[in-house]
Amino acid sequence: MKYPNGKKKRFTNQHTGSPSYGNRGMTLENDINQTNLYYLETGKAVIHKKPTPVQIVTVDYPKRSAAVIREAYFKQPSTTDYNGIYKGKYIDFEAKETKGTSLPFSNIHEHQIQHMKAVVEHGGICFLLVRFSAKDETYLLPAKSLFAAWDNQFHGGRKSLPYSYVAESGHPIPFSFHARVDYLSVVNKLYF
Q1: Nearest residue to 177 (alpha-carbon basis) of 14, 18, 35
Q2: What is the pTM of this model?
Q3: Where on the phi/psi map is residue 167: left (φ > 0), alpha (ψ -120 to 50), or beta?
Q4: Tens of pLDDT, residues 6-22
Q5: Distance CA 104, CA 102 (A)
Q6: CATH level 2 (architecture), domain 28-191
Q7: How is the chain split into domains, by residue range?
Q8: Residue 10 phi/psi, 5° resolution?
Q9: Among 132, 86, 77, 83, which Cα is nearest to 110's?
């Protein structure tokens, strides 16, 4: 086979035996980015990771091609991780991964909740993706379920999202080869 760059790809037989999905070696963010790329390339949706706004203060230029940022600050608090459009609807979501059996609310910020509430009020699709890495399970938790748990913490409730709540109020996201975190399959069931 001829390749565009003239180099041949070397194939190795690294996988002997049955495939294992238990240790995929990817973080949730990488899986989402790969999924979003697949969605974009197949024309399914346009969803991107939002860059964090940073003010660069000091940069060293030892060589033009080797600039090093020495000092930088966050310009403003970031909102959520991802946004885009799917079937004519605005989508906005945050993604969190935990090694434990609960996700501490300290990992979610008040300004993110306020942003998510504004998205919901304006008719956008908004949710939280949570991966429990020890269980190798990823869930889509609709924003309204997140808001209920968030508000409950201020009335003597838990200071975290336990696995049991996410599993009961959320929706498991299937793992597939191309769409590693196929969250749009869940969005289709919930919103369309």
Answers
A1: 35
A2: 0.77
A3: alpha
A4: 544 444 333 343 334 44
A5: 6
A6: 3-Layer(aba) Sandwich (3.40)
A7: 28-191
A8: -95, 125
A9: 77
